[in-house]
Design a protein that fits this description.
Elements (H helix, E strand, L loop, with lengths): L1 E2 L8 E3 L8 E4 L8 E3 L4 E4 H4 L6 H10 L1 H6 L4
């Protein structure tokens, strides 16, 4: 988990679907980083933070909006 001010690289936020609560974080010059944010203030990296640094509310949103990744991480 990183706070935005700690990350020096340029990045952009985008949503897969307009109604989603999850913002994906795109690091244009860096491949292989899968990161999301729920508030555009805190960035969570899927392979380092999921599920241990997700709040219960964030986990529920994640499971609903990202069933592929929820299954990948064996979230119930």
């Amino acid at each position: 988990m990183k706070h935005i001010k700690e990350i020096k690289e340029k990045f952009t936020f985008y949503k897969e679907r307009e109604k989603d609560k999850i913002w994906w974080v795109d690091f244009p010059d860096m491949d292989g980083f899968f990161a999301i944010s729920f508030d555009k203030k805190k960035i969570l990296f899927l392979f380092g933070d999921c599920p241990k640094n997700f709040s219960p509310e964030e986990l529920e949103i994640f499971k609903k909006e990202q069933p592929f990744w929820a299954n990948f991480f064996h979230l119930k």
